[in-house]
Each structure stands twice: as C-alpha cells, then as structure tokens.
C-alpha cells in the first residue's frame, strides 16, 4: 500500500508537469469558433502569425492525453502484477492526466458537465486518484479520453465529410509531391518519403506532421461546434479534419 504522503507528492508532481506544459501554451492561448476574427489574422506576407493567438486543439490534445493514459495503464498494470515499485512511475502520469482531465472538462460543452454520467465520471476519477487505485484510475482516464476522442472523430466525419460520403472512393486518394510534381496516388500506395500536399477544401485522410506551410484546419470541438485551428510547421494533423485556408506540406506518420 502506498503511503498517502508519497501518493499525494507523486500525483502533485505530475500535475505540476502538466501545469508547466499548460503555462507554456497559455501566452498565445484563446478559445475560438470558426466565425471569429482569427480567420482574418495574418502577417505582412499573407501567412498566419504564430503570435496572434493559440486555439485549443481538441483533437490533438485528446490524442496526447490518451497516449499518456496508455503509458499509465502499462506501468500501473506492471506494478500490480509484477513489480510494485513501478507505481512510482505510474502515479506522476496519473497526476498529469488528472490535471488535463479537469482541463478537458473546462473546454467541454457546459451542459454536458452537469449530466449524471459526467458527475459520476468526475467522482470516480477523483476517488480512484485519491485512494491510490492506480489500475482503475488508468482505465477510467483511458475511457474518458478515448470516448471523447471517438466523438470528435464522429463529429469531423459528420461535418467535414458527411455520413453519405464517408466511403467516398475519392477519400482513398491523396496528392503527394514526387520528383517536384504533384500526383494523385491511392493511400495504400503512400511511400514513407512522400510529402502530402493539402489545399483549402482538402480532407486529411492519414495522420501526419506539417513540414512546410501554415493554415487553418476545420475540426469538431468538445463544445460541439466546428472551429478552425491554426497549424504551423511541426504541428500534427489528424484524419477527418479539413483544410479551411492555407497550404500544408505534410509528412505521413
């Protein structure tokens, strides 16, 4: 059994790490809908400026939280089954996820936070953390982030593609840059060194990293509306989102 003082200290350490990450994002941080003035902000060269504001990237953030939850589950399971000291690794990860879980609630639809299911989820996640039940806490976080990520994907399919076009053959092709020319190839024939080219109106079909260009990506949010998220070099893009403006060169993951 983990001592309460050690438990709180390790959880607090993870929360501090999450707060530092949040603080680094905060200077350029703003909530946004697709109708705000962000869509018109640009620098003198006609490209988006990273210093205008930073929009909460719902899809990207949930992807990150879910990855950490998987690590927490792996370490907590190993601690319970094989080597108890591994819990010293899983607890900071759970604290990190705990901070981002409450942050995720802040960015969710206000009406959804008051539902009995949301209240039960909040109490369960908090109770498992404070009692040191690391495996149930890991599973609950994984479920909390995973189900919301699935709902975001469903929202992107519904609003960017449409349910009738979800199996459109055109979505299985993608434009890539090869030998200095743009050609259209089926997604299964995508090569590791290919660079995907996305223009306004194009739908992202495979995940990747922006290696050149910047633009706005239209995607569904936790508050149940479509928003435009700026993407710059080094940022990740995710399937079922759509390029609203700008041009992106993307390296597939």
Describe the structure.
Helices cover 45% and strands 21% of the residues. It has 253 residues and is α+β, with helices and mostly antiparallel strands. Strands 3, 4, 5, 6, 7, 8 and 9 form a seven-stranded antiparallel β-sheet that branches. It has a two-stranded parallel ribbon with strand order 1-2. A hairpin with a 5-residue loop joins strand 6 and strand 7 (226-231). Helix 1 packs across helix 3 (87-106) and helix 2 (58-81) runs antiparallel to helix 6. The longest helix has 28 residues, at 134-161. It is elongated and about 60 Å long. The N and C termini lie far apart (41 Å).
Q: Provide the gyration radius in Å.
A: 20 Å
How many beta-strand elements? 9
Instruction: Estimate the global geometry from the Cα principal axes.
Output: elongated
Order of helices and strands: HEEHHHHHEEEEEEE
Structural class: alpha+beta
Percent of residues in β-strands: 15-25%
Number of domains: 2
What composes the largest sheet? 7 strands, antiparallel
Question: Helix amount, in percent?
Answer: 40-55%
Question: What is the terminal separation in angstroms?
Answer: 41 Å
Unreliable sequence segments: 27-47
Helix count equals 6
On the 0 to 100 scale, the average pLDDT is: 82
Quaternary organisation: single chain
In short:
With 253 residues, this protein is α+β, with helices and mostly antiparallel strands. Helix content is 45%, strand content 21%.
Outline the fold blueprint:
Elements (H helix, E strand, L loop, with lengths): L3 H22 L3 E2 L23 E2 L2 H24 L5 H20 L3 H4 L2 H15 L3 H28 L11 E6 L2 E6 L8 E4 L9 E13 L5 E6 L4 E2 L4 E11 L1
Parallel strand pairs: 1-2
Antiparallel strand pairs: 3-4, 3-5, 5-9, 6-7, 6-8, 6-9
């Amino acid at each position: 059994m983990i001592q309460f003082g050690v438990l709180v200290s390790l959880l607090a350490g993870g929360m501090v790490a999450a707060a530092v990450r949040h603080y680094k994002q905060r200077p350029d941080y703003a909530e946004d809908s697709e109708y705000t003035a962000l869509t018109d902000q640009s620098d003198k060269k006609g490209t988006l400026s990273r210093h205008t504001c930073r929009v909460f990237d719902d899809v990207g953030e949930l992807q990150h939280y879910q990855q950490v939850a998987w690590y927490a589950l792996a370490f907590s399971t190993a601690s319970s089954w094989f080597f108890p000291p591994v819990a010293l690794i899983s607890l900071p990860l759970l604290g990190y996820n705990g901070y981002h879980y409450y942050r995720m609630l802040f960015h969710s639809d206000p009406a959804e936070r008051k539902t009995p299911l949301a209240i039960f989820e909040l109490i369960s996640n908090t109770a498992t953390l404070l009692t040191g039940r690391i495996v149930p806490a890991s599973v609950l976080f994984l479920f909390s982030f995973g189900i919301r990520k699935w709902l975001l994907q469903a929202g992107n399919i519904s609003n960017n593609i449409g349910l009738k076009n979800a199996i459109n053959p055109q979505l299985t092709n993608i434009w890539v840059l090869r030998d200095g020319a743009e050609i259209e190839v089926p997604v299964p024939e995508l090569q590791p060194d290919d660079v995907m080219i996305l223009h306004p109106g194009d739908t992202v079909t495979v995940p990747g990293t922006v290696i050149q260009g910047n633009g706005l990506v239209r995607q569904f949010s936790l508050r149940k509306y479509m928003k435009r998220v700026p993407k710059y070099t080094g940022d990740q893009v995710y399937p079922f989102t759509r390029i609203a403006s700008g041009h992106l060169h993307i390296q597939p993951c």
